[in-house]
């Protein structure tokens, strides 16, 4: 085998593993020394650029000319019960999807929710709480055939968040718990990937794939200010939104749609002033509204995701069938 053939073989193998698993395999492929834990705790900007190049040059692109196609993973919608438990509802949706349990009864869902509440033992939930819960629930399933990856631009506590009303009331208590959970996650070698700035195209490319979804933390204040859809229960924790400051809310991003009707719905619901014409919209399961499916413009979703307070948190989950 000559050098060119060897390089092509290596590239093809890299693409195969990248497509097959959204989890620690990504990190092991991108970084040169995958056995050194210190090397996989974070990605530099140059390494993020490598990740984007892999997606751009080797993976199937999500852009296509089929204007009626929906690239959406089917997930059963579950509503949050209180103003703080949107994250639990998202975990429920994902777990039921992974377990092919789309016909769970109301009683079964309520029992599952009570178990989850007993496990997390808090109402001011951070993404690391959800990761710990998700890992525990996956461990209980001997037939688990999934991978996940928690991506964020910060792992730990940003002390400046103590000034945000959303975090302030429980910040001291949260700080102790969150630090402990991150330490435990590090010890257990859970799949965490720190990315200084994930390209929006990377996210869209991933969730456009079959059987890949993402639990995403949004600023609900931005999302609701610019979105006409009624969101009665999405205060998303015990905090008041009256000061129009940051308010965290978890949703499940399950794909994109290029259907013109879906795009029109997303555009009409958005109150942004831009006159941009979109070729696709995002398809989400929002636990804070009763609508089974919500369509959102890319600009609204990205603005809500990148807001201060979210750390651009994403939990990517892949189901292998």
From TrEMBL:
Name of the top EC class for this enzyme: lyase
Keyword Lyase (UniProt): yes
One Pfam family cited in the UniProt record for this chain: Guanylate_cyc_2
GO molecular function terms attached to this record: guanylate cyclase activity
Alphabetic keyword roster: Lyase
Enzyme Commission (EC) number: 4.6.1.2
Cross-referenced PANTHER family: GUANYLYL CYCLASE DOMAIN CONTAINING PROTEIN 1 GUCD1, PROTEIN GUCD1
Name this protein carries in UniProt: Guanylate cyclase
